[in-house]
Write a structure and sequence with these properties.
Layout: H1 2-10, H2 13-30, H3 35-73, E1 81-87, E2 92-95, E3 97-104, E4 108-115, E5 117-118, E6 124-125, E7 127-131, E8 135-142, H4 148-161, E9 169-173
């Protein structure tokens, strides 16, 4: 214990400062960092965006179905019409990116991409293009589908509206309500 007291008496201000800063540095390094809070916020934002995308997809699907049902019901002889549409995907959002070129001819060029963000209401990427979901198939149930001329008119109308082949469109007669 005596050697420790002798050592403390020999220390000058500079050594005390170095010892104190070293202790503070060890405390800062040893403090736990809560990364889980950041992850939770990130997951919350992702799930909110997914829910918003899902509700947008459902709204698009409902609007598309109701417009198609209404349009097809105006075909002579079609009568009451019900429609079901299946999609291949959920669409695609194209995020705007800044591309910067640096360097010269001798060293070669380097490209750097960075997303552009909207700052209103949070940090969300700026979407330059929104691609709608691709249609996989269409099922049409119509009262007048028993008539081949009506069936042909419905088929040609759907093919004119959507970029799908005839074999992905099914038209059936609606059962009579008895």
């Amino acid at each position: 214990m005596k050697w420790f007291l002798d050592f403390l008496k020999k220390m000058d201000k500079t050594r005390w400062m170095i010892l104190g800063l070293g202790g503070i540095l060890l405390l800062v390094i040893a403090l736990p960092v809560d990364h889980a809070g950041f992850k939770e916020e990130e997951v919350f934002l992702q799930s909110a965006q997914e829910k918003e995308q899902e509700s947008t997809d459902k709204d698009y699907e409902k609007k598309l179905i109701s417009r198609l049902e209404e349009s097809l019901s105006y075909i002579d002889g079609a009568g009451k019409v019900r429609v079901m549409i299946t999609f291949q995907d959920h669409g695609k959002s194209v995020v705007e990116k800044d591309v910067t070129k640096s360097g010269n001819e001798q060293n070669g060029s380097q490209y750097q991409e960075a997303s552009v963000y909207e700052e209103a209401g949070g940090r969300q990427p700026y979407i330059s293009q929104q691609k709608l979901p691709s249609i996989e198939g269409v099922l049409i149930i119509a009262e007048g589908a028993g008539n081949s001329a009506v069936k042909k008119d419905i088929l040609e109308s759907v093919m004119a509206l959507f970029p799908i082949e005839a074999h992905k469109i099914k038209i059936v007669k609606m059962q009579s309500e008895s």
